[in-house]
Every structure is written in structure tokens, then in C-alpha cells.
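Deadline looming. Please check this record:
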Amino acid sequence: MAWFSPIGKRNPAVLRRAAGGLFVAAAIVFASLSGFLRTVDDRLAELRFQTQSIAPIGDVVLVDIDARSLAEIGVWPWPRRLHGDLLRAAERAGAARVAFDIDFSTVSTPEQDRAFAAALAETRIETFLASFVQADTAAGMAVRASFPIELFLQNSWPAGVNVPVDGDGQVRRFPFAIDANGETLTSMPSLLADREAGTGLFGIDYAISAERLPRVSYVDLLRDRVAPESLAGKTLIVGASAIELRDLFDVPVSGIVSGSTVIALATESLLQERALTFLATPWFVLAGMAFIVFACAIRLSSRYAIAALVGLAVTAEMLALYLQNGHAIVLETAAIHVLLAACSIWVLFREFGLRRVRLWIARTQAANSQSVLERVLDDGFHGVAILNERLQVTRINREALELLGLESANRLDELPAQIGQHVADIVAAFERGEGAGKPAVHVLHFATGAERVVEYSIVPFWLSGFADRSGETSGDIVYATLTLRDITERQKAHDRIRFMALHDSLTGLGNRRALEQLLENILSGPTPDGGVALVSFDLDRFKAVNDALGHAIGDEVLKETARRAQETLVAALLIARTGGDEFTAVVPAASLQTARFLAASLVEAICEPFFLSGHRIGVGTSVGISWWDGQAATVTSLMRHADVALYRAKQSITEQVVAFEPFMDGDRLERLKLEEDLTQAFENNEFRLVYQPQFCLSSGKIVGAEALVRWQHPERGFVSPVDFIPVAEEMGLIHRLGGWVLDTACREAKGWPLPIKIAVNVSAIQFETGDLVAAVRQALDISGLPPERLELEITESAFVEESDGLKAIFDELLAIGVSLALDDFGTGYSSLGYLHRFPISKIKIDRSFVMDILTSNRAIAVVHSIMALADGLGIPTIAEGIETPEQAAMLRLSGCDDGQGYLFARPIDGAAVVEMMAGPSIATPTMLAAAG
């Protein structure tokens, strides 16, 4: 070795070059041994597949044993006579050949086997039956061939269907033939493509679109529901595609597909002369390339060397793309890319040098080791932490640690992630001159352990710089103070009411408002991949369950339905209960077909019997799908389309899942007729006003009446406000109708014997786009009713578009002297914010809580929360929908002031109100129950 030392000393560049060469060689060897090269080659081939989409030639048609076939025919396996019937149906349609990717290697019942064998013998279609080899260690054989039973092979051909799976679980190749105990068994793709049995494997070209393969459902072909011209002269491949049959494989580009789809793609590859050949880069070519590339990299500057290496990588990949797309040759370029990447790393290392890297690390460590003065507040009522310019926790007191649930904290990343992100953002903004050191207040929720809500503020401030030992003066630096306090109790009431605003109290699912909010966000956001399915479903025969077994069992059915829906639609963004037994789910899906599969799975899950309280309950379901993949739509239209599709599904005898189609929108004609009749109703004076009296729950005295509008249609009879009020709002007629209601109610109330309040419902649209204040003034001026007797009932939807204009309207109404009641409280937004920002004089508890107050602990808790909230704000309460004396008693004990409902009086006309006032004007549950 004596000869080497002088060379190494005089020529250190030689050593560096030798080390570089060894690094490049080691990188290639390591990548090859670790399997990295194979992974990269497979991924690059898949990316090249995606650069083009080749249409199938159409001679191969898939006959899918899908979820719909299972639903109509029954649980798999099916009687073999059905396969014989399918052969006869294929012959009637004019199919040329039929290949079954189904296991016929074992006997069934003699009758079923003879029925299928008879069909094989009687039909003139060339038929292929699946054969395969599998491990058989029990028999002492490495593999065992499984052929169809001899009875079937008398009139059919065996075809190999073994699918080789790569190490990463994907299928990329298919054999020309397989060895079946010493015999050559031609594979099914080779037979269907009329190829002679060869040896080895061929690559499947996944540029051929699996989605564009012609498909029909097994049950549709079996029952002659397929147009014969679509199958005439075609080759049919019959196989399982339903998820529950588990004949699924992972393939490039398309992801998870059925085994029959893999066979079809392999057949298409042979038919289109696209059987792929895999070409690896020979080692000697790679070695020569490495020598040339390394030699050029030594002589070129770093900039040109990197540019040249990138150019070589691009050139290699373009050549591979040309060969794969144009000549069905897969050039494996991973080794070339690893070679070029290793050379690039060596060039960069040569450019910067080890000494420069070490110098940079040393300077960074020196800058991070500076220490400064600290500012601490040790023990205080609030939790306090101090963070330095490197966002390290220099001091934190015990209260802060207890609030955050920590033993200690030295770094920002040890604090909750939300706090860490806010500190970083606020300090950065402060350093840019934004914020001026003002406190930034945020709220942190702890989900683990005992529920706790912590409010915290972050205040950055400057510390003056100082001179170090060398005399250099550092610049000013930023510190930050983090202050925390526990606000758990303050938030609990708000959280409970807000939860009820967006969730169904029985099932815990979302409610209609939550559904609408989510759809609004989806429609206003970017177009998703695939699309979004709005899946609407309800329960068949649910009313019969309620009538026969009672509402308690009915509630358990609803809760179990919600649980099954959550387990089945695991990818759903939201599942909401939108009505009594109506549910809607928002499910992202790759295609409408995928959404249909999910809906079919949901139908299957819900149709399973319910075992509740010793009862075996059977309910069914129907599903309507509204599909959105980026087209113009609104929340209303999507929900309406889902409802229309659901109605179609419920009316259909054969289909439990129906997707909306434009032709289904015939109900729009009925809607147009309703709009026309509604316009005419004003001219014909078809509206009537009735009143529901309101009573004090303590004294039983009548204290007010709610005005309710009714539409007496000459042909339809009484039309429910639920049907025509939304139409009036959309048509802009709500202002005219609302004005008529105000005028009539005030005029009739003026003539009542007792000066009780008259409550009039006001739409949110009247606040947003109408002159509500002028309408109120006109009604009061014309009728002469004192303003303090008029009470306007508004729903929480009026606060959605909260603005200065809305507050101005409230101020004007308050100045006139009328009062405002918050209707349906607890079913909308239920925000505590607007209760103190707006002059609400009464809270009206929704009937849904009153209905369940005797049976639901959750309803009782909500009512108690509302009572506590109203009592704290000094706002009276009234409950609607009281139907039993027990409900009235429970509300009275809970602190509710007034109530209305069928227990006291049904809605009556103005004359009946006057007659009621002429009597004792006292209502007690006992008296009214006896009278009723």
C-alpha cells in the first residue's frame, strides 16, 4: 500500500472521485436489494398508463354478479340451474361465447348439476369454465389442479383463471397458460383472444379503461332485460363483482376491481396486441452509463452537471413513455434514475463541501444558545406562561400546567397544538408591525378526561437587546405572555343548546339544519373528485310498528336504524334525521354506481330484523339518491331531487334504490299549479285566520292568542301552511300575506273583551327584504290596537344574516312598543349571542321538547337548560304543543310561565275567541279534559 499514500496525499481529488464512484455504486446496489427499484418501476409504469386512455374494442362484455342480482335472486351460492338459464338467455341474445369465472370443481345436488349440464349440451354457444391450481399440502402435493366436474367438461372447455399477485398486492401480469399436474392449461384470456398456449406471463395494459368495459347485470340478462343487439356476437365473461363475494383484486390505475374485470382487461390486452413486455436495463449497460455520467460530472461545473443529469432523467423517461404507449414495451428505468440521483447528490456534496456544512451547523447552534432576561408571574389566579424569541417556554406556573393537564412544559410543541399555532402566528404578525401587542383571545377544548374549556390570550412584547462579551449589540427580541383561565361552566349551557340546534335529540344524528349547512359548504367549495351522493331513505311499515308496539319501541327502531346507517355508510360526511322516520346521508363517492352499491348495502343492513324488547320487528326501507358532481345546483334542489327519487323508490315494486333523473321532476308541474292557485287565493279571499289561545300555567287564565293563517282552497280544501308558506316565501308573496295577517289579527283583536296579547308569526324574509316596520305601523294605525298588545313571533332563522340593518329593524319595532318572541327555540341555531344583543321579550319552547318531556331525560335536560337560561336573562317562557295534563304539570314545575296546545284549546276563529272570553276565561287541565 506504500504506493497509494503519496498519491492520496498529492491528489485528494482522486480520493473524492473514488469515494463518489463507490457512493453511486452502493446506492444502486442498496436500492436493488431493498426492493426500492421494483417499487419505483411499478409506480412509473402506472403513471405512464395514466397518460392515455384506450377504449375497449367492445367484443368482451362483463356479466356482473352484483349487489342488485344478489338482492333479487338471493344469497350466494345460487342453484346451478340458474347458470343454465343464463346460457339459454345468452343464446337468445346472440352471444358467441360465454366464459364463467365461477368454481364448478365440486358437485352440487344431482338435479342442479344435470340442469346445468343439459344447458351446456343444448345451447350452441362455446362455453369456458374456470379451472385453477392451488396449494394442497394435506395431500402431499405442492399444488393441485381443480377442474370442473366431468359432467360439465363433456360440453365445455376448461380455462385457467389463476391470477399472479405481485409482492405489493397488485396484479400486473397474467399467464398465457398454467401447469396443471403436468398438463398445459391455457388461460382464459388466451382462449378468449384465440391465442395458442404459450409459456410465461404477459403484462396487462392498464391504459385500457376498466370503466369503459361493457357491463350488464346477471339478473338483467337472466330475465331478458338486456337488448339483444348489445350482446350479439360478443364474448361474455360471467363473474362476481359484489363486494360481499370478495372476488376483488388491487390493480394499477383502477384500484380495486373484480376478478372478472382483470380477465377482461387481460383479454383486451391480447386482442389489441397490447400484451406488455417488460425490459430491464442490463447491468453492463448501466455500468457503462454510470462510467460516462460520472466522467462527465467530474469535468462539468456543478450547475451544468445537475442540468445534464436532469436532462438525462427526462430523456430516459420520455423514451420509456414512447416504448410503453407506442410498442407495449415497459422499460424499467428506476435503476437509471437512482444512478442519476446518486450522481446529483455527489455533485451537490462536492459543491458545498463538508467544512461548509459543519460551519453552518456551528453558527446555527451559537445563535440558538443566546439567553435573555425572563419575565415571570409565579402563582396567580390565572395560568401564565412566558415564551422567548425562539418560542421556548421559559417559565410556566402551576395553574397553567393544571389547566393544560401537563406535568411540565419546556417547548412550544409540548403545549396543545392549537395554542402553539396561535402563538407562532401572533408573534410573526407582531414582528411585522401588526397587532400592536393587543391581547388575542381564543378558546381551547379538551376532549380527553374531564371536559374542560380554557380561554387564553396571547400578548407579544419587545425586550431590549444587550451587548455580549465581544462588544456586539444584539437587536430587540420578541417575548410573548400566555394567560389562561377556566370557562368550562360558562360554556356548558351554550354547548348543550347548540348541540340540540344541530342534532336530533333521539338518535344523536345531525338534523335538517346541520344537513343544510354541510350542503351549503360543499356547493360553495371546490368540485370534489368523483362526486357527492345525497342518500335519502325512510322506513317502510314504521307507522304500523308505532301503532302496534307503541312509541317507545318505535324510538328504539329509529335509534337502531341510525346505528346501522353509521356502520354501513362509514364514509358519510353526515347522516341526519330529517323527519319522523326520514334520514338523509351525504356520502362522497367515486361514481354514481359506487353510490348505488353503498345504498344497496344500506338497504340490506336495515332490512335485517330488529330484536327489541322481546319483539322481532321487520321494517324495510327505500332509498333515493341525488347525485352532484359539480353541476349547478342548490341545497333545495339537491334535497328535492333526493325526495323525488325516494318517492319513486317507494312507488316501485322492483327497485329499492332509485337515483334521480330529470324526467322524474314531474312534481314541478304540481308546484307550478300551487303557485298559480296561491296567487289567485288573494283575489278570491281564500285565506282565513284562526287563533290558538295561550294560558298561564299557574293561574289558568287566558293571557294571549297566536294568530294562525289557513288557506281554504275551493278544490283542495284546507291547505296546510307547511305546504304554502315556503312557496309564498320563494314567490315573494310572503310580504303581502304577512301584511294581510297583521291587519286582520290587529283588527279582530281590537274588538276582543279582554286586552290580551295577540301573537303574529313573521317570516325571516320579511326582515331581510320587506318593510316590516311600515307594515306593523299600518296595521296598528288602521286597527287602533295598542302596540303593547302586539307580539311578533320570529324564528332563529331570522338571525342567519345578522347585520346592522337587522338590529335597526329591531330597534324601530321596540320603539313602536311591540314585543318580540323567539319561536321554536332549541331547534335552530340557539345561539346565546343574539339573546343579549336583540330585545327578545319571550322564549317559546318548541313542541318537540314538550312531546318528549315525560319520557326523555334529554328533553327534560334541554327544557331545564332553557328555563335556567331564560331565568338568568329575565325573559318569560311559553311552551307550545301541550297535549296532556302531565306535560303541563311538568312544564309548570320546571318554571315555564305560559303554554298553548290541544290540552287547552284547538285553533278557533275570532268569534269563538270572543265567546271564550265571555265565559270565565279560565282553563284547567281537568276541566278541559272532561270537556274534551
